[in-house]
Structure formats: C-alpha cells, structure tokens
Amino acid sequence: MTLAAHDMKIQDYGCLIDGAWLPAAGGEWLEMTDPCDGSILARIARGGSADINAAVAAARKAQPGFARRPPVERVRLMNAISRRITAEAERLAQLESRDTGKPITQARNDAIAAARFFEFYAGIADKVMGSSIPLGDDIVDFTVREPLGVTGQIVPWNYPLQIACRSMAPALATGNSIVLKPAELACLSVLEIARICEEEGLPPGVLNVVTGLGSEAGAALAAHPGVDLIVFTGSVATGSQVMQAAARNIVPVLLELGGKSPNILLADAAVETTIPILLKAAFPNSGQTCSAGTRVLVERPILDQVMDQIAGRLPSLTMGRGLDDPDLGPLVSAGQRRKVESYVTIGAEEGAEVITGGAFISGASEETGHFVRPTLLAVKSPAARVAREEIFGPVLTIMPFDDLEEAEAIANATEYGLVAGVWGRDIGRLHRLAQRVRSGQVFINCYGAGGGVEIPFGGTRKSGFGREKGVEAIQSYTQVKNICLRIDMPEGA
Ligand code: NAD
Known about the structure:
The chain has 493 residues and is an alpha/beta fold. 37% of the residues lie in helices and 20% in strands. The protein has 15 helices and 21 strands. The chain binds nicotinamide-adenine-dinucleotide. The site of nicotinamide-adenine-dinucleotide (NAD) has 31 residues, from helix 7 and helix 8.
C-alpha cells in the first residue's frame, strides 16, 4: 500500500521504507495536533521495531551502490532537492508553523535553512578528499574519507525541518544511507522533505523515515546492530539512553543535546541596541530552542538599565497562533507548559524575583493553547536550579557580576555548554571571556542562536559532542581509511 504524503488534505502519513510509503507493521496511527487549539492536523504511522528492522535492511542494501556512484551525481541530486525545498518553502513553512506552533516568520527561516543545508553540502559532496603521506620512494600511502554506512537519525520536535535537513544533507553528501525517526509531537515537514527527496530521484532505500514513539521506534533504532552511526538531537536523559543502547553494539554516536546559554553584557555594552537582540536570542520558538540565550549576565554598573529595558519590553511581545506571526507562539504541548510553569514556581521558592511574566495566558484551557507569558526572573545564586537547568520555554534569568572572573564562573556554572554571547567594546575583555566560557560556539556582539549553516555547531559537556553544520560535519559522517601500496613486489614473492 502506497500513501501519497504530499496532499495537505490527505491526513495519513505512512513510513517511507525502501521507496514505499507504508502503514506501520502494527497497523496503528498517532494523531498530530495543532498546539494552538488541539485540532487534529494529520495521523502518522506508529512504527515499531519491525518497521525499523525493514528500514535498516533497506538502508544497508541501498548504501554501497549509492556511495559508489560518481560524487557529482550527489551534487546534482542535492542541488535539485534544495531547489524543490525553495520552491515549496511557503507550504513547508506553513506546515511547520501549524505542527510546532512557531511563528510563521521563524518557520520561513527554517525552510530557507533546510534548502541551504542541501545546497551547502551539495557543494562539498565532490570535494571530500584524503591526503597523501610521504613514506619514501617505494611506497605510495594515502587516505580516503569513507561514509560510515547506515546512519540512524533521531530528530526532536522543536525544529523538525531544520534539524532533519541538518543531519540528512551531510550524511547523503558523503554517501551514507539514512533511517530517520522524527519526533511524535511534530514531524510533518520531515515527511514532506522525504517526499521531495524521493520525487527528485533519491534511490529507494537511501532515505527511510519511520515515524512513531521514542520508546518504540526510537529505542529500536538506537539499539539496532545494523546501524553504523547514531545521530541524536534531543534531551540529555534520552541522549544518555541512546548512547548506552548504541554502546552495546559499539556504534558511534553524535549527540546534540540541551543548553543553558548565557549572554554576558560587559559594562561598556551598547545596551539600547543589544536588548532587542537578546530578546530574539532568548525567545525563538517561545524559548523551545537548544541554543536559546536564556541567561543574561550583566556587569553590575549597567544592571538596573538592562533589567528595566528587558522588563519594559517583555509585556509588549505578542502571543498567538503561529500562522498569525506573533512574537511567541504556544508551547508544543500541555506537558511542556506544565514543566515551564513548575520552573517558575521552583524559581520563586529558590528566592528568584519574578520581574515580569510568570503565568500562562488566562482563558487557555488545560489541554490546548499552551501559551506562557515571556518571563524575567532575577536570580540570586548561580546554584539556583532556574539558573542552571534547561527550562525550554520563554523564561529568561538575569544575574549581576562584578568582574571577569565572576562572569566566567557564573557562565560555566551549568552542566551545559552549547552557545554563549559576549557584548561590549573592550576587545581584550571580550576575547578573554570568549576563551574562557565553556561552549561550542561564542558570539561577540551578535547572537546566532545556533549559527548559520556554514559554521560548526555542537556542544561541550552535557550539551553533547560531535559537530553538525559547516565543513566540520563531514568529519562526523565519514571515517578515514589509510591505504598503503608498496610499488615493488616483496623480494622472493
Ligand atoms: P527528547 O529527548 O524527548 O526526544 C528527542 C527524540 O528522541 C524524539 O524523536 C523522541 O521520539 C526520541 N526518543 C525519545 N525516547 C527515546 C528513546 N528511549 N530512544 C530513542 N529515541 C527516543 O527531546 P525533545 O523533548 O524532543 O527535544 C528537546 C530537547 O532537545 C531539549 O533538551 C533541546 O535542548 C534539545 N535540542 C538540542 C538541539 C541541538 O542541536 N543541540 C536542537 C534541538 C533540540
């Protein structure tokens, strides 16, 4: 049975396995709801271990042939996919906005980034080179970068479109095949990308998508011995489980996990122009962003000014349905909203002052319309849970510091290390902090919220390891083989 996944009116999205859209082996479906009002958007197949087994088998079969074709074919194919994503960008953005709840402008940016991932890695696909190693006249020694084989990719719900393409594009560019498990809370755009790849001529079995629950399809993929690399983007708790499952098969993992990223304002920062950027950094996708700058650390002389300006602006941020393009959409689920609210309570119990926000919008029912007002918490100690733990909602904490050593200590007082921003004019102090903050990326007088397609992205400590994006991602999806050739036959052979 083949299900067309491209018509918005068609409500059922099957799994893509070996070039066919199929219902799950177990025959069950999961409902996908609009987080704004709880209405049903579509149904996805509830895939499980049988579907993962079939997908891994298809990916194993398809990968060698795909990798052995001239790389220029992958260049052309990926460029064609990029053009199709661009052509369908508005449709993809609307679907992403409805599925995740995020403002349409942000979803449009995600669609642009998705196309750009395919374009960027298309440009690299025929330039993955090795080196030659001089060992003297009699020996030719060189390295080649080989694909790992079958990549198992597990994607979260907050940026399905971007994150799926971020991992798919370098994997395909380097000749790997894919079994992708998107998130059960939001994944419709990923299925549309799979449909585009298929229609543009990606050979059957090279990309397989199995939808379903994390505890079923996700766990089966992480534990599968037929996978050569697990790429996991999601929470620390699940990342740890995935890593343990992969370890049993000695399968390498690339983990992109959470964050608690600081923006550090030195006393000579340009406060007026910086604050709007800080708010954009803190609340993309209503704060449900791994790289969101959710902590503001301020050198004491400008503390009151920064606090007043943030507190003054937050109440005027608009909230509403993603398609109406507010500043903040709803959180993805009732569970996520309850988690965020519980953190506000924890913060208050720890002595933090709620400067503004701190409540979900009255009138929203318990199960639908998961809106939380943008919230500013003045925190007294870096040891407070709200200052250390990822809240994953529109909650910004603010803390003062008196010198660079204290700024560094507070910035590094979480178990995460994904992104940091430092702001000011004294280039020496800025650079000193950039060196000392433990973080995979540091922005100076800007904040990329994860950065562009071209620059390496990934964490330190509990934010994970391995790098996505940029040329660096090629290392993550390939391995080096050394080939040593002696020119003459050995004596006496
Ligand atoms: P999650 O860990 O709950 O789920 C992520 C994915 O893992 C989903 O597809 C889910 O179905 C699957 N999953 C769940 N249980 C599983 C299991 N036992 N085995 C295998 N797979 C399983 O995370 P989430 O709530 O979807 O995403 C939010 C988290 O992701 C946040 O911590 C956020 O910071 C992080 N994140 C990180 C990045 C990054 O690039 N560093 C990007 C986006 C999100």
